[in-house]
Automatic annotation (TrEMBL):
This is 4-hydroxybenzoyl-CoA thioesterase. Pfam families: 4HBT_2 (PF13279).
Length: 143
């Protein structure tokens, strides 16, 4: 298993402003979809954990650095690496590139949350194991 999750997304017309430049709120929506895919690959699809197990993974912290613009029609590569696993949170790093150019990066903290009580919970054991299996060293992250 690769520790770094990689997927791609094409920038669509609705992701961009009138000049064809990616609009940052759309970036965050795309990032959320990448996270959903990451969770599914680990065996925890959101539709299952939300509807059947009644827990979710809200973002509790997010920082982004935008280094170069992206444009309508370009395909962006998203790399997701787990940096830290806590009792009820996980820190992930995202690197987003187009070809050899880094376009933006993000550090995100997600928390395990009981969806009925609206409180943080410890990661379910199987989820903790899946996250720890993806825990990457700085060298493996490469970013």
């Amino acid at each position: 298993m690769d520790k770094i999750f990689i997927t791609e997304r094409e920038l669509r017309f609705g992701d961009c402003d009138i000049s064809g430049t990616a609009y940052f709120p759309s970036y965050l929506d795309i990032l959320n979809g990448v996270n959903e895919e990451f969770w599914a690959v680990m065996g925890f699809p959101w539709h299952h954990i939300i509807w059947n197990e009644r827990w979710g993974t809200p973002t509790v912290h997010l920082s982004c650095d935008f280094s170069k613009p992206s444009f309508f029609g370009e395909t962006l590569k998203f790399e997701v690496g787990v940096v830290k696993v806590g009792r009820s949170s996980v820190t992930v790093r995202h690197r987003i590139s187009c070809g050899a150019e880094i376009r933006w990066s993000s550090t995100q903290v997600l928390a395990a949350s009981d969806l009925d009580k609206h409180i943080s919970i410890a990661w379910p054991d199987a989820m903790r194991e899946a996250l720890q299996a993806r825990l990457a060293t700085p060298e493996e992250l490469g970013f």
